[in-house]
Amino acid sequence: MSIPKETRLPPFLALNHRGKTPVFVDIIPSPDVTSTVNINESLAILYYLETYHKPEMPLLPPISHRAARALVLSRIQETENLHYAYDALEEAHFTALASEVSLPDTERLQLIRDVCTELDFWEVYAARSTFISGDEFTLADCALFPILAYMVHRKFEWRRPVCDSWPNGPSTSVNGGVGNDVKGKGKGKAKETDEVDAWPNLKAYFERVWNRNGENGCAQKAQPAGWNRRGKANVWKGTKGNSKPLRQGVSIYGKEL
Prior knowledge:
single chain; two-stranded antiparallel sheet; mainly alpha; Glutathione S-transferase Yfyf (Class Pi), Chain A, domain 2; 39% helix; 7% strand
């Protein structure tokens, strides 16, 4: 990554003064003067493409199908909750890394719990239908799948953390109160399950979208260059390049960092 970031340079800031991606620049041909339209933020870009670039297979149900359209629109907006939860974890991890300090173990675990809580909601949705808002692939899948794909790139393993050694233990269930916390015998201790595939329906959904139409499918074709392998940093276990730990600490997933 260049320093300063490319997104902080004047040409990019002219497109989005927040210095954030994604930004879509649409070139509008004209017999007189060609113009451009800049669209910021992923959800706005999805709506714009659906509205003005008319895909052969529409990804929004027609206006006449009110209930189906409302469900897709709701799911699209709801993906922001998972986006925010994961971004908080990643930002805390890399802020600590840049400052050459350690993110406190308890803070990392709480941020991971917040992501797990969100995934529990999506697990329910994934169990109801083939795709996330019904049996047809829609804009809702275009909004959700990239977040899951990015988490997997950052070495997400579809399992919950173990926290035997945390001094205060979790105050609430990792899935928002359903009861996946198992209280330990010692005072102030608790243990959370670390089962593989803690979200089996959501994982099956992820693989379904990834394998949809194989190498010619939208998921695999849209994969950024170099993403055929996972990234080096692991925000879940607090490690940087080549899985080197930021420091020795207590276990989050059953192994010493």
